Amino acid sequence: MRKVKHLLLLIAILLPFLIAPATISADATSTSSSNTSSRQTSVAAIKKRGKIIIGTAADYPPYEFSVKVNGVSKRVGIDIDLGKQLAKDLGVKAEFKVMNFDSLLVALETHKVDVVIAAMSPTPERAKSVDFSKVYYGDNQDIVINKSEESKYKTLSDFNGKVIGAQNGSEQYDLAKQQMKGAKLKGLDRVNNLIIALQSHKVDGVVMDSTRAKAFVANNNKLKAINPHFKVSGQQGTAIAVAKDSPGLVAATNKTITKLQKNDTFDKVYVPRAGKYMSQGTKQNTMWNYWTYFAQGIEYTLIITIFSVLFGFILGLIFAALRRSNNKVLHSLAIAYIEFIRGTPMMVQVMFVYFGIGEIIQNIPAVVAGIIAVSINSGAYVAEIIRSGIQAVDHGQVEASRSLGMSKKTTMHYIIMPQALRNIWPALGNEFITLLKDSSIISVIGVSELMYQTQLVQSATYKGALPLFIAMMIYFILTFSLTRLLNYGERKLNRPGRA
């Protein structure tokens, strides 16, 4: 009966967390009706702000990708040029927010971005959630294969029994799922990783649009692109995604696209310019030329880790104390927090903080949202580590200190905690090292930490394994250095005479 009561109390405490998304959605709807210009991304709101926030993926040459120009990292491509022209026509500045492709529509629906320009196809399924401009660049759907196997594959049926790769959340993924039922479908977040899987024979083909396929084939003579003639419904090509009920912005995007198409700007200017940058990137694709990418990744990784360790430790202390409290409400609250956080994936927590809580707190930076999520996650584990360390201290020492007239607070400060810290130091060290490595998860919301920068290098250089190897070595150096530092601290704690 007692367990049932605790379970009911736990559910009652967790209920706000479970209904939070619905509450946020309802609040967003209510706010939208009362403040349309700020919540529905109207042209007037963008002009008043002085900038248009454009969501993109930056890993999809020739549409959007990163290169180094005179030693400086620069985002280039067809979509980047289109976004800048749209901003110019609106009389505002263009700000690009980069994140995983399958997070872009979520960012649009939660008003993190005003528009999405990321080689996105205006499929009927997507049109249920967002509005689209007219198609600005037409495309077919190809399958990239290893050139050594080109004699095996001509049509879709040739891939029966084979493994096909496609980017998660893309039109190509849906096409492969619907029209290649005899093949096993493998989805990944990044096309670069799919190409690595193709070259290592983890997949037999990768579905992508023909423009992107030509880019890979032109920069890798071991690949071949074939047109298996997918049947495509709706508009064929790529369009700009806009939040629902934003007719003014849709009209503005169509006006820009119509002007560019009338002057044949895409084929005469944007596509050749993107190809030039791609050729330049191929010539300068040594890892040394991209050391600044890795340096920036290290900087953000350390910032995230340091702040998350600090706030996570503070949260851990608080909730460890609450869990040891005799107050049933505080005790149950601590249990609810610890069990809920430890029972959900960190990636979900990161995305919830950024897209969910960020719906209430507008313009929360991605790096801040990442630090908050990681700190909350770490705090749950640190709380249990601290609690176990306190329980490991012999209770007889507590009784002895109290018999000497020490207060409960003094006993905890001078007798229990010093011994508990020595006991839990190795476990805390493991948590901090894990935290450093898990910071890579924040790349899903576009934070420029080490893994995110590694993926940009992959896109710019068309090399898959080497940037990953360098990232592995950097992580090893960081974790090894942290391990040495923690070992030094452990030796200091274990010196003779220490409590």
Describe this protein's structure.
The chain has 499 residues and is α/β, with parallel strands linked by helices. It has three domains: 35-137 and 237-284, Periplasmic binding protein-like II (D-Maltodextrin-Binding Protein, domain 2, 3-Layer(aba) Sandwich); 141-226, Periplasmic binding protein-like II (D-Maltodextrin-Binding Protein, domain 2, 3-Layer(aba) Sandwich), CATH 3.40.190.10; 290-493, MetI-like (MetI-like fold), CATH 1.10.3720. The protein has helices at 2-34, 36-39, 43-49, 78-90, 104-109, 124-127, 171-179, 191-199, 210-219, 247-262, 265-283, 291-323, 328-342, 346-356, 366-391, 395-403, 408-438, 450-461, 465-493; strands at 51-56, 65-69, 72-76, 93-98, 115-120, 130-132, 141-146, 163-167, 184-188, 205-209, 223-226, 239-243. It has a five-stranded mixed beta sheet. It has a five-stranded mixed beta sheet with strand order 9-8-10-7-11, with helices on both faces. Helix 1 packs across helix 13 (328-342), helix 13 crosses helix 15 (366-391) and helix 18 (450-461) packs antiparallel against helix 19. The two termini are 42 Å apart.
